[in-house]
Amino acid sequence: MSLRKTLTALSRASSPPDSSITAVNLEAAEPSRSSQITFRPRKIRKVSLDDLNPSPTTITASPLSSKSTVDIALRHLLISDELLGGVISAHNTPPVFESTSTPFLSLARSILYQQLATKAAKCIYDRFISLFPGGESGVLPDSVISVSAVDLREIGVSGRKASYLHDLAGKYKSGELSDETILEMSDGELIDRLTSVKGIGVWTVHMFMIFSLHRPDVLPVGDLGVRKGVKDLYGLKNLPGPLQMEQLCEKWRPYRSVGSWYMWRLIESNKTSKTKLSK
């Protein structure tokens, strides 16, 4: 499909993205949580040249949950990449990154959702939450450790995932990890520390950084959806590998998370267009 047709399809899209075609976890084929982002139209504010080149400290201090940061990111991407700018301009619902979950709860949920369709995963997650007084607010390291693997299996959690949850909770209880230290870690430190938890790989950490911590400059080079989007955007013959992804998306810095979000939207629009043509 030509880029012109793709952009036309994007401009006509009015419903939330189909979760069945969002980011694909190459580690565990887990459906992406990008589809859980709520959409609301808004105007992009005017920014100065200084805003377009913030310091690393400013980027770290301004997560994507800040409306002004998203607006600055969009302006930067529109200027730095003409092709990506076309996708952004055609898609009239800018991303909204919202999450109120604690890092521990977000990581536990990521483990539970692995290798499951969204509907089945949510059913198991709801059962998991019901085990704790207070619901989600009661999902704490000590309380998770207190739930046996047998009890977890009774609600549909596999023995392997039960061991992953206990390993995560154990690392919190020992002090190796905490919500406070996670929030202070650099992106590199997060990957090093979180991948030491059983069942958590680089892809999961990338999704966690984007959708839970709202880090602005994360490029999930192992995500199939983002790779397909980059392939279509730049007219490549083959899916780009990690190194090519880094090279092609370098111009998106320091807002590669937002650029990646638009790659998922691009793939969704392409699938929608192909479905209409096949009818």
TrEMBL record:
It comes from the Eukaryota. Residues 8-20 have a biased composition (Polar residues). The keyword DNA damage applies. SUPFAM superfamilies: DNA-glycosylase (SSF48150). Residues 112-268 form the HhH-GPD domain. InterPro entries: Alkylbase_DNA_Glycosylase/TA, DNA_glycosylase, HhH-GPD_domain. The keyword DNA damage applies. Keywords: DNA damage, DNA repair. PANTHER family: DNA-3-METHYLADENINE GLYCOSYLASE (PTHR43003), HHH-GPD DOMAIN-CONTAINING PROTEIN (PTHR43003:SF8). This is HhH-GPD domain-containing protein.
